[in-house]
Amino acid sequence: MKKEEILVKKKCLPLLLLVALIAFSQPVVMADQRDITLPRRPSTIGMDLFSALENRKTTREYTAARLTPQDLSAVLWAANGVNRPYEYRTAPSAFGNSYVDIYVAADEGIYLYDASKHRLKFVTATNAKSLLSGQRHVAAASHVLILVADTEKLPVMITEETRLRWAHATAGAVAQNVYLACAARRIGTCLVGGIIEQEIRATLGLPDKATPLYVIPLGYEKK
Ligand SMILES: Cc1cc2nc3c(=O)[nH]c(=O)nc-3n(C[C@H](O)[C@H](O)[C@H](O)COP(=O)(O)O)c2cc1C
């Protein structure tokens, strides 16, 4: 190899390394200081499964009290938290893909539940609880879970109709997990299918491919 060729190669090396680094690096998602680290979920919930099933019911009257971070942590983990290696979840899903996202609407804003880190990722500072559904008890809840299908996470050979059907099945399992955790923690809840899809889309800034499915208000029951 000629001396000039070696010189050119030496000069290009840092540039080539930089291109390779950009091409192969993962996108870096920066943590927002408004993200919330949830407390560790409790190791037991204080009620056996059959008692929780006996107590499972829909509640539409809530007190003004806000859910404690411990209760929110327990409900979110039960809903669709990571329960095994390889990030498998408490709710079943086709191909083991987590294509049902849980957003959490609170007074101070909306967050996306990051199951792998058991954290709430800040989305927007809007208090949108009254926009999610026309139903009064949703607006009055302490927190509202918003279940959104992200069917793009399913393999391309699955039709959109099937993807959505599977997302509804997973959302149903998530909802029952929430109902049972709420029964055990004495929290009121309700699976709500009467949602205002356009408002949810606009508030969360969802892409066309994402589909809001249900909302689930949470609050301590007014006796
Ligand atoms: C798919 C689905 C959609 C529902 N949508 C609503 C709703 O929009 N508003 C509401 O108040 N309850 C809704 N519910 C809750 C039911 O009204 C409730 O489960 C039913 O009255 C039976 O009461 P229980 O859950 O106490 O057994 C829905 C339940 C399901 C399964």
Could you characterize the architecture of this molecule?
It contains six helices and seven strands, in the order αβααβββαβαβαβ. It is globular and about 80 Å long. A hairpin with a 2-residue loop joins strand 2 and strand 3. Residues 21-28 have low confidence and may be disordered. The protein has a single domain, classed as NADH Oxidase, CATH 3.40.109.10. The longest helix is centred in the C-terminal third of the chain and has 26 residues, at 160-185. It is of the alpha+beta class. It binds flavin mononucleotide.
Gyration radius over CA: 22 Å
Oligomer: single chain
CATH superfamily: NADH Oxidase
CATH topology: NADH Oxidase
Strand content: 15-25%
Span from first to last CA? 87 Å
- Residues in helix, %: 25-40%
Name the features.
35% helix; NADH Oxidase; seven-stranded antiparallel β-sheet; globular; binds flavin mononucleotide; single chain; 223 residues; alpha+beta
In short:
The chain has 223 residues and is an alpha+beta fold. It contains six helices and seven strands; from the N terminus they run αβααβββαβαβαβ.
